[in-house]
Design a protein that fits this description.
Chain A: Belongs to the cation diffusion facilitator (CDF) transporter (TC 2.A.4) family. SLC30A subfamily. The structure holds two protein chains of two kinds. By secondary structure, chain A is of the alpha+beta class. Helix content of chain A is 59%, strand content 13%. Chain A contains ten helices and six strands, in the order βαααααββααααββαβ. In chain A, the strands form two sheets. Chain A has a three-stranded antiparallel β-sheet with strand order 1-2-3, covered by helices on one side. In chain A, strand 2 and strand 3 form a beta hairpin. In chain A, helix 1 runs antiparallel to helix 2. The radius of gyration of chain A is 27 Å and the shape is elongated. Chain B is mostly helical. Among the domains of chain B are: 218 residues, Alpha-lytic protease prodomain-like; 72 residues, Alpha-Beta Plaits (2-Layer Sandwich). In chain B, 56% of the residues lie in helices and 8% in strands. Chain B has twelve helices and three strands; from the N terminus they run H-H-H-H-H-H-H-H-H-H-H-E-E-H-E. In chain B, a hairpin with a 2-residue loop joins strand 1 and strand 2. The longest helix of chain B is centred in the C-terminal third of the chain and has 32 residues. Chain B is elongated and about 85 Å long. Chain B starts with a helix and ends with a strand. Classes of the chains: A alpha+beta, B mainly alpha. At the A-B interface, helix 3, strand 4, strand 5, helix 10 and strand 6 of A face helix 6, helix 7, strand 1, strand 2 and helix 12 of B.
């Protein structure tokens, strides 16, 4: 139900959630029916939209990069300068990083096969890892070049040329960074999409029958950039599901892993360009102080490496199958133990397939007389409500 | 297959128990009595002691222990024996049952060593703490770790010397070689660190333990080697285009020294000097990657020496040829390791179990009376040899879940899936 656009162009949908007890065959256990794979139709359409948006961004970036690179190659051959050709090679490495990200984005949409039972989402993470290794490799190569510049006698190195080439590279990289990091421009379209997705969310709630009460969601199209405000009409203790749905959408504003790693690559390149520019300016000004160039390059390489550390840590955590940071395992365990009929929890494992997709597996010991079905229901419902983990496998054991 | 027929019979005949006798209980140690005939185990790859795909088979001490283990049913063996069968990848295949040459340093060090961090979550260790713990780990580590540490220190010393000499005398070739060596050293240090850190017990945040680090370091090594082969190809292309065979003779000395050091490393890890290895545990991948790393480095140095020799012989384009050959060789050597480690990191189904084995288990579970459907069967490997899975079973209401659970666990345990989570839903 949506009211027509008012003056402030708000789209209001009101939905009434049926109270629990209407589980039937579906209940809350089989998410979306018996065909629940890791990406059911709802999440996969969201994924596909996000993926195509990211792919579009990266394609534009690759295109621009190739154009600039060919300009530099032609200019370098005409001017017969090694510095310009080296910078063209750096741009080529940018293209390589974008190509890796594009491939990972495309591959992560493949259907799951029996050998790859969780789907291909991990390819994103591996692609990002390869990208970051490339960044490190390039930083090392730049330091080597700085040392080579130091060794070559004066006269070979022209400060002016270095400065000009680095400035050009910087401009290119800044354009790319703005293109890749820019989230606000598509705010209008995204709100439209979110409207669809949010109504799907409510449909899902009706099926599952968990949330009680009426929630009103207002979408402010245009102004609010990052938050959707969800105001439950009736303050009900059980309406946390709608809140968690809203939480999901604010979290979705996280950049896709691959776009983020391409962005990091470009950022690193622009930092390096600044360093080379400073070095070129110094050599131009005072050719005797060549060592400063090397020091500059070293410092800026270290800065680049530091920018990659946070992303590398996230990647490592996913690859080590560790509990994601946003999930507090002790609270989870305590909360589960407090449910009635539950005696003990053991072998609790929470891990992420990729950033954002979390799975859980555990063994729950219950009292002998308890009904396994209701306990399973309660446990799954609790986990979904409190921690928003929807792909859960619980093994119920009796004492 | 015989056992399937036997199980079906027992299903029909015995009304008291609805299930065929479990192949192995969940503790995994007992040899089941009354196993009718020898079983064709589809998950086994039919290897014997002489099989050279095993890393350990070259060690003569392993052959002794293997013959000893033929009579001792507690250690894992392949299925061709005439005694009762035990699954190959079972829970008893712990670090205690490894062949003797590892127990020397490993068994002693294992119990003594433990890093202090337990349950600290995402706390950052300071660099000093890391270094101190690394030194402590090396001293109490097993023999491969000590050898790796020795190799790394040799390499570091050599590369710093090369760098200094290159900078002071103004030879760019030496500097680039030094950089290449430094990158390699960094990677080997990461391998060493992962060997030490992977012995930590699982804690709250890393619920599966730290063994994945070894697979990660193997992957990083393989990736670096692939990068190296690409860069060598680019260098060959560069030499082809430039067409100037200005030859740097001083590089020969460094190439020869490099070759000697790397050949020493290959000798240390000679059990792993193969392209295709069956990985039984996590360390296998790590050692294999280290061995391939030093092997590729020595191939590269040999290629450089060969190129300069050809140049003195007057062969045209010798550099291009040799560099191209080396690049192709390194690529082919590294690719299987890269694929295997990538498969584990991508959570692919366990490589040593064929899909038909999984479908056979599926059918056996579905054949049970009370089970109506099996779905969402997912399996992956944490490290080679430790498979984990999850399963969703639809069961008729009122069925006794205990025996069903027990049976399903036993079934998959035989395939090597040690950690299985079975969710039973009642229709």
């Amino acid at each position: 139900m949506e009211s027509p656009n008012s003056r402030s162009s708000q789209i209001i949908d009101v939905s009434v959630d049926v109270p629990g007890g209407v589980s039937g065959l579906d209940g809350n256990k089989i998410c979306g029916g018996t065909t629940c794979r890791l990406s059911d139709s709802r999440t996969s359409s969201k994924d596909a939209k996000e993926r195509s948006a990211s792919m579009r961004k990266l394609l534009i970036a690759v295109f621009l990069c190739v154009i600039f690179m060919s300009i530099e190659v032609v200019g370098g051959i005409k001017a017969n300068s090694l510095a310009i050709l080296t910078d063209a090679a750096h741009l080529l490495s940018d293209v390589a990083a974008f190509a890796i990200s594009l491939f990972s984005l495309w591959a992560s949409g493949w259907e799951a096969t029996p050998r790859q039972s969780y789907g291909f989402f991990r390819i994103e993470i591996l692609g990002a890892l390869v990208s970051i290794q490339l960044i490190w490799l390039l930083a090392g190569i730049l330091v080597y070049e700085a040392i080579a510049r130091l060794i070559h006698k004066t006269g070979d190195v022209q400060g002016v040329l270095m400065f000009a080439v680095a400035a050009f590279g910087l401009v290119v990289n800044i354009i790319m960074a703005v293109l890749l990091g820019h989230d606000h421009g598509h705010g209008g379209h995204d709100h439209g999409h979110h409207h669809d997705d949010h109504s799907h969310d409510h449909e899902h709630n009706v099926e599952h029958g968990h949330s009680h009460g009426i929630s009103v969601t207002k979408h402010h199209s245009g102004n609010s950039k990052h938050k959707e405000e969800c105001e439950p009409l009736l303050e009900h203790a059980e309406s946390t599901s709608s809140q968690s749905a809203c939480l999901k959408e604010t979290k979705k504003k996280q950049r896709n892993v691959n776009v983020h790693s391409a962005y990091l690559h470009v950022l690193g390149d622009s930092i390096q360009s600044i360093g080379v520019m400073i070095g070129g300016a110094i050599i131009w000004y005072k050719p005797a102080w060549k060592v400063i160039d090397l020091v500059c390059t070293l410092v800026f390489s270290v800065i680049v490496l530091i920018t990659t550390i946070k992303m590398l840590r996230n990647i490592l955590e996913v690859l080590m199958e560790s509990t994601p940071r946003e999930i507090d395992a002790t609270r989870l365990e305590k909360g589960l133990c407090e449910l009635d009929s539950v005696v003990a929890i053991h072998e609790l494992h929470v891990w992420a397939i990729t950033v954002g997709k979390v799975l859980l597996a555990c063994h729950v010991t219950i009292t002998r007389e308890a009904d396994a079905d209701t306990v399973l229901d309660k446990v799954i419902g609790y986990i979904k409500r409190e921690f928003n983990i929807s792909h859960v496998t619980i093994q119920i054991e009796r004492q | 297959m015989e056992d399937q027929a036997a199980s079906r019979e027992s299903l029909g005949v015995e009304s008291a128990s609805k299930f065929p006798p479990p192949r192995s209980s969940s503790s995994g140690h007992r040899i089941p009595e009354g196993e009718p005939a020898q079983r064709q185990w589809s998950g086994d790859y039919g290897l014997s002691a002489g099989d050279r795909r095993f890393a350990f088979s070259r060690q003569s001490s392993f052959r002794q222990s293997f013959h000893r283990s033929q009579s001792d049913p507690q250690t894992p063996v392949s299925s061709q024996g005439n005694h009762s069968f035990r699954p190959y990848l079972s829970r008893s295949d712990s670090s205690i049952s490894i062949p003797p040459w590892e127990i020397d340093g490993y068994g002693v060090g294992y119990s003594k060593f433990s890093l202090k961090g337990d349950g600290e979550g995402h706390q950052k260790l300071t660099v000093l703490q890391l270094m101190l713990s690394l030194v402590g780990a090396i001293r109490s580590g097993n023999r491969p770790m000590k050898r790796l540490a020795l190799m790394i220190s040799l390499n570091v010393a050599y590369s710093t010397a090369e760098l200094l000499i290159g900078v002071l005398t103004g030879r760019v070739g030496l500097v680039s070689d030094a950089f290449h060596l430094t990158f390699g050293c960094g990677l080997l240090t990461f391998s060493l660190f992962s060997m030490a850190a992977s012995r930590r017990k699982p804690d709250e945040v890393y619920t599966y333990g730290y063994k994945r680090l070894e697979v990660l370091s193997a992957f990083t090594n393989a990736l670096f080697l692939l990068f190296m082969s690409f860069s060598l190809a680019v260098e060959a292309l560069h030499a082809f285009i430039q067409d100037e065979s200005e030859h740097k003779h001083y590089l020969i000395v460094s190439a020869v020294t490099n070759l000697l050091v790397n050949l020493l490393g290959v000798w240390f890890f000679r059990a792993y000097a193969r392209v295709n290895i069956v990985y039984r545990k996590a360390e296998d991948m790590n050692y294999h990657s280290v061995c391939l790393h030093v092997l590729s480095d020595s191939i590269r140095s040999a290629g450089l020496i060969l190129a300069s020799w050809f140049l003195t012989l007057g062969v045209e384009n010798a550099e291009v040829l040799c560099l191209g050959l080396v690049s192709v060789a390194v690529f082919m050597v590294v690719l299987p390791l890269f694929k295997a480690t990538g498969g584990i990191l991508l959570q692919m189904a366990p490589a040593n179990v064929s899909p038909s084995a999984f479908s056979k288990c599926w059918r056996q579970v579905t054949a049970l009376e009370d089970v109506s459907e099996v779905s969402q069967a997912r399996f992956w490997e944490l490290v080679p040899g430790h498979a984990i899975g999850s399963l969703l079973i639809q069961v008729k209401r009122g069925a006794n879940d205990g025996p069903i659970l027990h049976y399903v666990h036993g079934l998959y345990h035989d395939l090597g899936v040690q950690d299985l989570t079975v969710q039973m839903e009642y229709t």
